[in-house]
From TrEMBL:
Xref: PROSITE patterns: LDLRB
GO molecular function, one term: Wnt receptor activity
One Pfam family per UniProt: Ldl_recept_b
Any one Gene Ontology BP term: canonical Wnt signaling pathway
Organism: Melospiza melodia
SUPFAM superfamilies: EGF/Laminin, YWTD domain
Protein name: LRP1B protein
Coiled coil location: none
Length: 179
């Protein structure tokens, strides 16, 4: 799945398959300007930062069990969001500090360090990296990913795929080659 935020005409948090199909709104009310998003892959939670409402909130992958983690003026200048173990990490663009927010007790907010200029934050940890398994976009014997001549996108599962073409090309009737 691909998770993303939008705050155009109607602010929302959405998800879709990697090929763009099955687009679903998971949050579309009481949301104004969601600017950062982080996933808890193990527990299947979506966290987002809303700088207009000055809040950090969470829902499960289906948009249920919504909770506010923390709220207040200090959220106004935050950008980027990452989750690791019991904490959310974000960057305060006003004073250029990294903040750590306890995700079960949002009143526990600590500044960890100062940076010169950061707009995003990521946490990489071996346990959270998905195990590589066989999937529909693996390179075939002729060197084409998933048998697609240009681009292979996973679809509704790791066993399904959709072929797409680079700009200026159209997909052939075989659903794999680009012309």
């Amino acid at each position: 799945k691909l998770f993303f935020t939008d705050y155009g005409n109607a602010a929302k948090v959405e998800r879709c398959d990697m090929d763009g199909m099955n687009r679903t709104w998971i949050v579309d009310s009481k949301i104004e300007q969601p600017t950062a998003l982080a996933l808890d892959l193990i527990n299947k939670y979506v966290y987002w930062l809303d700088i207009y409402l000055e809040s950090v909130e969470v829902v499960d992958y289906q948009g249920r069990r919504r909770q506010t983690i923390t709220k207040g003026r200090q959220m106004r200048h935050l950008c980027g969001l990452a989750v690791f173990e019991n904490y959310l990490y974000t960057v305060n663009s006003d004073n250029l500090s990294i903040l750590r927010i306890h995700r079960y007790n949002g009143t526990d907010v600590q500044a960890l360090a100062r940076l010169d200029d950061a707009k995003e934050i990521r946490v990489f940890q071996k346990r959270t990296q998905a195990a590589v398994r066989s999937h529909a976009c693996e390179v075939d014997p002729s060197g084409m990913p998933g048998g697609c001549s240009h681009i292979c996108l996973l679809s509704s599962s790791h066993k399904a795929r959709t072929c797409r073409c680079r700009t200026g090309f159209i997909l052939g009737s075989d659903g794999r080659s680009c012309k």
